[in-house]
Every structure is written in C-alpha cells, then in structure tokens.
Amino acid sequence: MPVGIFRVCLVVLTAIVNHPLIFPRENGTVPENTEEIIQKMKEREETLRLEQLRLEQEIAEQEAIQKALEKSAEVVKESKEEKVRWDMWTALSMVIFLLIELWRQDFQEGIWQDTGGEEDDMAVLGKAFKGVAFPDKAVLASFYEKRILGTTGDMARMREMVEGFADDLLEALRSVCNRDADMEVEDCMGVGSMYENWRVRKPFVCDLIVPFAPPEPYCFRSQTWCSGDSFPPDEQGYGTIKVCRADEDVTGCICDKTKLGEDMLCLLHSQANTTRPSSEMEDLLCFKNTQYLDADQVMKWFQIAVTKAWNRISHKYEFDLSFSLLDSPGALKIKFRSGKSIAFNLTPVVQYENSDVYFISHFPRSSLAADLPSSTHWFLTFAVYERRFIQLVSKTLPANACHVSCLQILSFLHGKQCSLTGPSGLTNYHLKTVMLHLLQARPSQDWAPEKLEARLQDMLKFLEKCLHEKKLYHFFIGNGKVPAELGFPIIFQRAEPFNLFRPFVLHRDVYRKTVDTFHEMLRNMTALINEYTVHIPLAQTNGIHKESF
Question: Which residues are in the Mab-21-like HhH/H2TH-like domain (predicted)?
C-alpha cells in the first residue's frame, strides 16, 4: 500500500513537473527567437561589412595621401637638385660673361683712342666716301684764308669786351648780395670754342662759367656717378651736391642715415646741428626737405642776383642787358642803340673737390640729350681741362699746325649742312672730341700745315666709324693716357669710358637723321667750300678730285 501510494505520488509529481503551463520548456520558443537572432546577426554582419569598407576606404585614402606626400617630397628634392644645377650654370654663365666683358673693356681701352695710326684700319671704312669729290690743299687753303682767318680778330675783340663787362657785373653782384646768407660768387672763366680759337659760325657767343660757394659755416660735398655708389646708366656723367656744415662729418656718423628715436641723441652732434629747419635749407638753394643743391633754385637765385647787379651799374653803360633764353640761367644779350647785339653765357658752376672739374647747373642740350633725372642732378663739365690739353699739345706741334684748322672746317661744313637740312644729333662738342682723340693718337709731325687735307680726311673717317658703331667715347673719362701735367683727377681716369653716342641706341630716328645729314654733308662738301673760295688759277683747279677712302 505504501508502495502504491508512493508510486501514485511520483506519477502526479512527474506530471506536475512536466506540465507546460507550470514549467515551460526553454526551447519551446526556439523557432521564433532563432529567426530574430538570425535577422539581427545579418544586420550586425552588414554593419560590420560597411564599417570594414569605410575603414578600408580610409586606409586607401591615407595611403594615397602618403604616396602623394612622398611624391611631392621627391619633386621638391629633384627641384632643389635642379635649382642647384641651374644656379651653378647661372653662376658659370655670369663668370664667363664678366670675363668677356672685362676682355672687351681691356680691348677697347687699348684701341679706343688708337684712331689715326693705321691707314689699313681706316681703309675698311668709308663706304660713304667712295666717289666723293674732295678738295685738295690749294682749295682748302684758299677757303680757310677767306672764310675762317678773318673771324679771328673779331673773336679777340669780342672776348675782351665781354670779359671786362662780366667782371664788372659780378663785382656789382657781390655788392648786392648778403655776405652772411647768400652764395659767394668767384671770378668767371672763359671756356669753349671762343676761348679755344676754333669758333667759325656766327653769332659768336662767349661761354663764361662762374664758380660759387655757400656762406659760412656751410660747404658743398659732391658725389659723382663714378664715386662708388650705384648710378643708373642714364645718370652717367652726373652727380649730386650736398649742402653740409663745415664741421659735419657726413661719412663718420650714422645719425644722418638712420632714425635714432625720440629719446636718443647723437653724442657727436648736437640737436641744433642735426635738426635744420626746412626754410633754412631752401634759403641755401636746396631741394625741398633735402640737403641737395637744386639747379632750378640756383637758376632763380642767379637771375635775380644778375638783375639786381645790372640795375646798380646800368647807368654806366650805353646799352641794355636782358636774358635771351628763359631756360638758361645766364644766357645774356647786350643790345646796343645801333641795333647790334652781343650774346654771352654766364653760367653758375660748383667746383668738384680741389680740381678744375665743375658741376654745371644748366648745360646746352642737343636733340640727343635726355631730360635731367631731377633738378638735384648736375652735369659735370671738363671744359677747363679740354682747353688746357689743347694748349699743352699745341706747344709740341709744328708751327701753324693744322689741328684747329681741321676742326674749324669740319664745324663750318656741318653747320652749313644743318642750316640746309635741319639739325642733327651731332654737335660741335662731338667734333671737338674727335679732334682730341686724333691729337693724342697721331705723332706731332702729322699735324704740319701742309697735311691739312690728310688730317681732315682722318677726322671724317673717324667720325664715320663712330657713327657706324654708335660709339664716341668722352676724351677724359676712362682715358688712362691723359698727360700728368694736367693734374686731371684720377677717379675719372679709372672710370668706365663714357660713350657720348649712347643715346643713338635709344633714339633711332635721331640716329638715322644724323647719318643722313653726315652723308649729305660729304656729297655737298665741294659745293659748300667753293661757295666761299676765291678764284684759283686754272693750273691749280685740279684740286677738286675724286678720293676713294
């Protein structure tokens, strides 16, 4: 019995335990949960795949960036290497260019003045001379005697009269100026063709230069294009003039070159010396707010001073004095009651250091010349040394040497031709420069009076050569063979040669006009000379002959 009850209880307990409502089986919802899990797993798998793709894309982008950086680094490295190679080639090219340029300058220095020594060098020129009828010695001598010699006496009388009046005028100018505030004017000097005795064209004009200096305690300190500082090519031949106190060391102190600040003072210079009112510098004829001498201010001051001086002495003279050119400070004209007039130039200049080179405020300009860089740039004139050189060389030449005669004839022919066809780029200064070169190049005996014809041909050939090459070097600048007796400043002898024909390169129309005028002068030379030549007997008329240069 008990066993039976136990069995019944065991069956009932088993039934209760296995009943699904009381103890549900864990795997009873497996089918439904499995599908949901599978769906979630797929979604998760898709998410992981997308994440993987994103990561792969980022990695690929980073790799591409890295490769680009590496490539750019390689390019930079290659460019640096190429730049180094290019810099090396550039430096090498510059060295070669400088060597060539130095060789060219040395070559030019050796031959630029050697113009008349070799007839073979001249023979390759002269295309314009072929077939030109050239006057012989008799015709040239007759022309020179009739047309040119007669003017010598007139020039001497005019020089004497002008110099005497100029001295009187300058003395009156000093008396009307304030010695404590105005510029100090020195004695005048005669320069140019009138004082070198080769002027042939009328009207005769005397050129006088008047050095002036600032009042105490000021002084002039000049700076030229060849003094070491950089000047552009178009400023070659110019310089600047600084007005300084005599006790001021412009080279030893930097207070004038740098701004020290409001709370700093220069221990060498007091504030009174370093700070100058603008009006004070303008009273010293400086450009506004600078210490540089202004050529325009000098022109105004000089014209006013000359006018005051003339008003003081005009009662002593029986003529009138007036300015003949508005753009030239000292272009004066004396007008007599008879109607005759005499023109002369009285031009203010500043001495360069202790030499006879002068800064000139206004210089006669030709069609070649460009405008001044500014009114603080002054042109340098070597007219005093040119006159001394001619005088020095003339002492070594034969009696009645033909150098001046050649220049006079050439100047006359060129002036006549310009009066017929209009002005050209050539000036009388260019013609004088040609003569100076030939004077230095040829031996003294070659300038005997009987060799006038040959030397005139040399001058024409040399001038043609210079026009063809567009090169005519200034006689003094860069010329290391200047006689030591002249005391010429060494700084200009060591400077680079100054090409007077450089503007021809820039002004091709003026160059073409100049060349055409020169060729026309050659063709008309015989006619121009015969116009002023007295009758020569038939036995001597064979003088007009053909010359093949």
Answer: 404-477
195: which 2 tokens? Answer: 């004082």
Instruction: List the helix and strand counts (H, then E) for the chain.
Output: 16, 12
Give the pLDDT band (50/70/90) at residue 104: low
b/e code 256-291 from CB counts within 10 Å (16+ = b): beeeeeeeeeeeebeeebbeeeeeebeebbbbeeeb
Among all chains, which residue has been given the structure tokens 């200049």?
349
Contact indicator for 159, 195 with CB cutoff of 8 Å: yes
The residues with which 133 forms a beta bridge, in sequence order, are 546
Tokens 């105004």 sit at which residue? Answer: 300
Query: Exposed/middle/buried for 486, CB within 10 Å: 0-12, 13-18, 19+?
Result: middle
The amino acid that residue 368 corresponds to is: L
Contact in structure between 293 and 285 (CB atoms under 8 Å): yes
Phi/psi-derived region of residue 126, left when phi > 0, alpha when psi is between -120 and 50, beta in every other case = left
Domain positions in the chain are 129-247+278-532
Predicted confidence band at 217 (pLDDT cuts at 50, 70, 90)?
confident
Measured distance between the N- and C-terminal CA atoms of the chain, rounded to whole angstroms:
170
Name the DSSP letter for residue 370. Answer: P
Q: Which CATH class is domain 129-247+278-532?
A: alpha beta
Pairing of strands 545-547, 378-381: unpaired
Dist CA 152 CA 199 (whole Å)? 9
